[in-house]
Structure formats: C-alpha cells, structure tokens
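Shipment paperwork, digital attachment
Item: protein structure file
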Amino acid sequence: MSARLLTVDQVAELLGTTVRFPRRLIEERRITFVKVGRHVRIPEPAVQAYIETHTVQPVERRYGKVA
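Attachment content:
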C-alpha cells in the first residue's frame, strides 16, 4: 500500500477547516475512508480527488464593448 493514510485532524488541517467537516464527509459517505479498528483514516489520494472534483473554475468574461 503506497497511499498515505491521514487522520481526520490532518485532513481538516489540509482543507483548512474544522475537524467537524471531514467527519461529516465520512458520515455522509462523500469521501473514501478506511477503518483501522475503531479509528478512521482517509487516503491522501481521496483527499486530492475530493479537492479536484469540488474545485470551481472561474468564468472568463470579456469586459468591453461588443463590436
């Protein structure tokens, strides 16, 4: 297994949120997680995939007069 497993605290720090947010993602099954006994770990690629799928690209607008 090459994927690094992160704790909920580490994921919260990586996302810049409180611990409650990754716990909610786990509870709602919106992110992949691994149960190690009674502990929960989130694979680092799952966090990166979550960030990529929820990244909103800016809209390019042209300012000026239309000819």
